[in-house]
Write a structure and sequence with these properties.
Blueprint lengths: L24 H13 L7 E7 L4 E6 L2 H14 L5 E6 L4 H13 L1 H5 L5 E5 L4 E7 L5 H11 L4 E6 L12
Parallel strand pairs: 2-3, 5-6
Antiparallel strand pairs: 1-2, 4-5
């Protein structure tokens, strides 16, 4: 017979309590709920940012109308208990992700060489491209990125042996 609070089965530990090593489970569940509620605004979604140190969720949208809809939904209709900040950004996350995928996947075609790394920087609302100054084709890559003349792109040049922004690794 299995008593209350005791594991079921023959010696196996079958607890029904979820394992939450980081202490983030309830926040994660609520962020997922918020994300699901905002799916109808995906075309305007500039990405959600989570700051664990302040337990703050930043909702980024590309229009004031989309921000108002998000505010109404999360503050009135189906309130969240998370601390939420609403910010208008210039580009949607989807547009930046598509741009990044296209540029990184086909960099040899448009840049004449490969060696660019990076990804979408949701906080900056840009595609960040990283070029190692010591790469054999660094000048070609930097010139090709600059030639794109795309305001959605930021370029960071770093040197091997240092951090991404030229600072020594600690």
């Amino acid at each position: 017979m299995v008593g209350a609070g005791k594991p079921k089965g023959s010696g196996a530990q079958e607890w029904s309590l979820p394992l939450d090593v980081t202490g983030d489970a309830r926040y994660s569940e609520e962020r997922a709920r918020v994300r699901a509620m905002l799916t109808h605004l995906q075309a305007y979604d500039g990405g959600m940012l989570w700051d664990a140190s302040t337990s703050t969720l930043t909702i980024q949208m590309t229009t004031e109308d989309a921000l108002q809809q998000a505010r109404l939904l999360l503050l009135v209709t189906s309130p969240t208990w998370l601390r939420v900040i609403f910010v208008e950004v210039q580009y949607s996350a989807l547009a930046l992700e598509e741009l990044a995928a296209r540029l990184f996947e086909h960099q040899t075609a448009w840049a004449g060489a490969s060696g660019i790394s990076g990804g979408v920087d949701y906080r900056a609302n840009r595609v960040q491209m990283l070029v190692n100054r010591n790469h054999e084709h660094a000048d070609t890559l930097v010139q090709a990125i600059n030639h794109l003349n795309d305001p959605r792109i930021t370029l960071e040049i770093y040197t091997s042996g240092s951090g991404v922004y030229g600072q020594p690794r600690g």
